[in-house]
# Entry
Amino acid sequence: MSKIIGIIAAVTLLVTAFLAFKNKEAFNNEVSNLAKENQREEATETELADEKVRLSDAETAIVDYNEQNKTVKKELAKASDELNVLKREIVSLEEDSKVNEAKLADASELLEQLPNPKELVPKVEGMRSELAELNEAVAIKESRLANLTSRETALNKDLAKVRNLSLLQTSGASFPSMRTTVGSIYRDLGFVILNAGDKEGVVSGSILDVIRDGAVIGKLKVTAVEAGRSTANIVLDSVTEGIQLQRGDKVIAESNSSVALVQ
# Structure
């Protein structure tokens, strides 16, 4: 009887030791998972701070471009007004010149009847000289107006680019023109490293398509963006069954993105 009790006690001790070992292993797994979640949370907070800085920079740039655009438009309006004034003066001088030329022609025919016909000639020559000077001034004003118009066009294009950058960053979509490839894959951790960053149009939080042989084989969600590279999680259940992502796979912005860009 004592042997049976001893055996039962030994079995009980073994079971207790086995359960303690399993609980310790589960506890260690929970600690490891918690550490990973804390790292991801810190990375997300850093990424959010970076996005706020980029958005603030974009908004500041828009304000600066708007101010420059207002200045250019004011200069354009002023130049246009001056040009219109000069054109009216030219028309008036041309009409006066025609009248004087007609008088000169009449004076040539009636030279003997005029007290001093030669007085009209200097007047006509003087008006022709003044007309030439006004034409030159008009040409200068037109050239200045063309330069201002060109500056306004360039500023509007730059402003559109800044607005598109701000719009895409706010909407969480990468640039439609963004093209890159998978640089590294960490399947156990569920993420990849891409060979493109913010300068190439990758936007944090955006969804990207992985392309192979012209077909979408999976999707990625960007988690962090740096200069020249970025990291992205592999979207669960998005990878085509039987296919694994590989280094060199092409990556583009999600094809169904509906962000309306400024032209």
